[in-house]
Structures are given as C-alpha cells and as structure tokens.
From TrEMBL:
It comes from Chelonoidis abingdonii (Abingdon island giant tortoise). The gene is LOC116833877. Its main location: endoplasmic reticulum. CDD domains: CYP2. This is Uncharacterized protein. GO terms for cellular component: endoplasmic reticulum membrane. Residues 22-58 are annotated as: Disordered. The keyword Membrane applies. Pfam families: p450. Gene3D superfamilies: Cytochrome P450. PANTHER family: CYTOCHROME P450, CYTOCHROME P450 508A4-RELATED. It comes from the Eukaryota.
C-alpha cells in the first residue's frame, strides 16, 4: 500500500500541538470540535509513517472534522469523502478562499491564480479558463500537440535500445512542452540547455523541501534566518526570471490583433485595460499566472506518469491487459486519440486507479472560509484555514474496498464497463478545482497509451522487490527513483 504519513501535513509531527480550545464553536453548546483528549505532541511522535496512516488514526480518534495547531495557527482538518464533499461541493462558496503556504505563497505575494483571493482570483481564473479553452484545452488543436509530443517522447525512448534508464527527466520535458506550447507558443528541443535547467528547477521545487515544513510553521522567524529553508524560493526566482525573459521577447513581437498563445492574450488584455486603475491584468499577475500554469502543468502530470509506470513494473499483469486493449481498439498503425478513451474501459480504469493510489497531492492546498460558516453543527469563523485531506478521500474505507490495494477493477462494473467512483478527487473539487483538469486528463491518457502502444515496460530488478512507497511525502508525494527497460513491441 501507500503510506500516508504525518509528513503529508505541512509541518513535521514535532510542531503539532493539541487544540484545547477549538477554532470551531458549536452554535448550540459552545463546545469545541472533538476536543476530548486532543492530539498531543507525544501522540504525534508515536505515529508510524506506514499504514494505518496517522491521519486515519487521528480520524478514528477525533472523527472526520477536528482542529489542530500548526505552529501558532489553528486549522480545521477534514477527513473522509463525506466531510470533504460537504465542504468543497455542498458549501462551495463558503470554502472557496485560499490560505497561504508560506514556503510557496511568499513567491507569489497574492498574485497569479492559485494563491489569489477575491476579485483578483475570480477575474484571473475566468480569463485562464477561457484562454486555455480557446487554445484547445479539450479541443482538437491541443490534442494534436500532445500526439506530436508523445511521438517525440517515443523517439527519445527508442534511443535507450532496451538499456535500463531513469525516465524522470524525459517525462518531465515531454509534459512541460505541452504547457510551453500553450503559454509560450512553441515547444523546446529536449537538449535545449535552458529548457533542461528550467525543468530541473521545477522538479526540485515540486514536493517542497523538508526544511520548508518548519518554515511553513514559523515563517516570521525563519524568513529572517538564512539556511536550506530558503532554497525553494531561490528556485522560484530562477523560474520567474525565465518567464520574464520570455514575456519581454513576446512583447517585442506582439500583434494585438492576432495573439498566438496565453502570454500574448494576457498582454492584449493588459493593453485593453491600461486605463483602468483597478485592473487585475498587470505584469506581476501575468508572470505569476504563467508560473502557476507552468508549475501545475508540468510536475503533477509527469509525477503521475512516473508513478503509473512504476506501478506497471510492479504489476505486469495490469500492463498485459492494457496492451491487449490497445491492440484491439487502436492497433499499431495509428496514434491514440482522446476519443479512444471511451472504448478502453480497462485502460481508463487503470489511469483512474493510478491517480487514486499515487495520491500525489495528499492534502490539497489550504482553503479558508470566506465568511462565518456553519458546518456540521459548528460555527467556523471567517478566515479560518481548512485542510481537506485528499488522501483520506482516496483511501476512505467507507468508499473503497481494500483502499491500500492497487485494483483497477474498482473502476469497472460487472460488465467490464467503466464505473465512476465518487471518492476520486485528484483535481480537488468545488470552486478551487484544478482549472487544467481537462488538459491533464487528455495528457495522461495520450502519453500513457502512446508509450504502451510502442513498448513493453520491464524492470531490471524483480518486481516483488520494487517499492511503491513515496520517496518524498509532504505537500506533494514523489515516487522513488527507479530504472526502466523498454522493449519495442
């Protein structure tokens, strides 16, 4: 199974403190949420990083809604599908605020889409969704770009000639090129030095540095102290410099009547609103919105693919069934298309199970309540941070039988047709659902099926010796590094 350790929360267990006076007040009794014998420092230190998970243990003790202190901040934690769904979907507006993750959000300073709130968030999210849709998110033009990039990746993989290799940067560059084509208007050669450097920075930044967990808890103190907790921000500044350089290049050649990509469209909007003193279409928001897209659109998808291929190495019988379905539905003579997904229930089920099982964003990003909010009989004050633990949705025993087991069949009915599962929220839910969900789903399917159409994957070590336990597990989960062998089919 996949360990869901205390480290999935944005601070180490040693900085968790009990919440004797809850942030949530009952409208009837004044009692706090589940404060009978609240979690203590000693309890947290005893928790094992292996299943049963600490978050599940706390849920068993305190219920699906409880309060903890992260440093000096008191936060509400939601566990299990029902509680998360009631908050993010049934009370979507109230839970639509975004909280800070100091180690990340200090780079954005409230700009861009992901860490913005209020009118800025609404305007930039609407613009980003519309622009992505116009440039083909879920439409044919972006599908063709993904198909072409998948073929480039196949050609790169063929160069390995069956020798063991680590696929980490090949996958990252291929996925990154899709966002590059949308944001910048062009893809990069895999050997481009700036492109390689950029992807290494994104890879390094994605899971968060261990020292950043402490920074997230005591930002005011640690911001003034040099040390490894500052490394992540340095990575971000280098990525931002790359984006700024590209924006300047595109400003010089911009045709206001014929925008070619996301940056062009934003620059046109900036020109249209330059007389509006309250406009949200500024250079800083352009840089940060681009950073959001680049960051979210690269490492999350490539990490999911890496986890997926590792799982296929561990369970070769799953790979064999996918090969059979590819041969029947697609064959070997044409590229996979997005339409094929509806005729490939086992492959579709496997991709869903990979996303559920790999659970690469186990705790989502912090939400805040936008006003005083009644939830399950309690009153949560405006501005309170809320963490919906997505790992407790994906591993909810009330929703998934044997959740620690990898089983594509849970997404199939008795006739072998694809079956949706409610407790499946890899893109989160509600007002803050990932704005690139459609693009990400298409990329995962087309890259996955194109690679498996051309190759049989195997491991140089015995599959039974392969571990699926994450190498890093805090804000993001990262699979262990592994060697992959590809044999042409």
């Amino acid at each position: 199974g996949t360990p869901q350790g205390m480290s999935t929360l944005p601070c180490r267990s040693s900085v968790w403190r009990s919440s004797h006076r809850s942030i949530c007040r009952s409208s009837r009794t004044g009692d706090g949420v589940n404060t009978a014998k609240p979690p203590t420092l000693m309890d947290a230190q005893k928790l094992s990083p292996l299943p049963p998970s600490p978050s599940a243990q706390l849920q068993d003790t305190y219920g699906p809604v409880f309060t903890v202190n992260l440093g000096s901040r008191r936060v509400v934690v939601l566990c299990g599908y029902q509680a998360v769904k009631e908050a993010l979907v049934d009370q979507a507006e109230e839970f639509s605020g975004r909280g800070d993750i100091p180690a990340f959000s200090k780079d954005f300073n409230g700009h861009g889409v992901v860490f913005a709130n209020g009118e800025r968030w609404r305007q930039l999210r609407r613009f980003s969704l519309t622009t992505l849709r116009n440039f083909g998110m879920g439409k044919r033009s972006i599908e063709e770009r993904i198909q072409e990039e998948a073929q480039c990746l196949v050609e790169e993989f063929q160069k390995t000639q069956g020798a063991p290799f680590d696929p980490i940067f090949n996958l990252s560059r291929a996925v990154s090129n899709i966002i590059c084509s949308i944001v910048f208007g062009n893809r990069f050669d895999y050997e481009d030095e700036k492109f390689i450097a950029l992807n290494k920075l994104i890879f390094k930044r994605f899971p968060g540095f261990p020292s950043a967990q402490l920074y997230n808890t005591f930002p005011g103190i640690l911001e003034k102290i040099p040390g490894p907790h500052q490394t992540g921000s340095k990575c971000s500044q280098e990525i931002i410099s790359f984006i700024l350089e590209r924006i300047k290049l595109q400003q010089a050649t911009l045709d206001l009547n014929a925008p070619q990509n996301f940056i062009d469209c934003f620059l046109v909007k900036m020109e249209q609103e330059k007389q509006n003193p309250a406009t949200e279409f500024s250079l800083e928001n352009l840089v940060m919105a681009t950073f959001n897209l680049f960051f979210a659109g690269t490492e999350t998808i490539s990490t999911t693919l890496r986890y997926g291929f590792l799982i296929l190495l561990k369970y070769p019988q799953v790979q064999e069934k996918i090969h059979q379905e590819i041969d029947v539905v697609i064959g070997r003579d044409r590229a996979p298309t997005a339409e094929d997904r509806g005729r490939m229930p086992y492959t579709d089920a496997t991709l869903h199970e990979i996303q559920r099982f790999s659970d690469i964003l186990p705790m989502s990003l912090p939400h805040t309540v936008t006003r005083d909010t009644r939830f399950r009989g309690y009153l949560i004050p405006q501005g309170t941070y809320v963490y919906p633990l997505l790992s407790t949705v994906h591993f909810d025993p009330e929703e998934h039988k044997d959740p620690e087991t990898f089983a594509p069949e849970r997404f199939l009915n008795e006739n072998g047709s694809f079956r949706k599962q409610n407790a499946f929220l890899p893109f989160s839910a509600g007002k803050r659902v990932c704005l690139g969900e459609g693009l990400a789903r298409m990329e995962l399917f087309l890259f996955f099926t194109t690679i498996l159409q051309h190759f049989t994957l195997s491991s140089p070590v015995d599959p039974q010796q392969l571990s699926l336990a994450p190498e890093v597990s805090n804000l993001g989960k990262v699979p262990p590094r592994y060697q992959l062998c590809l044999r042409q089919r």
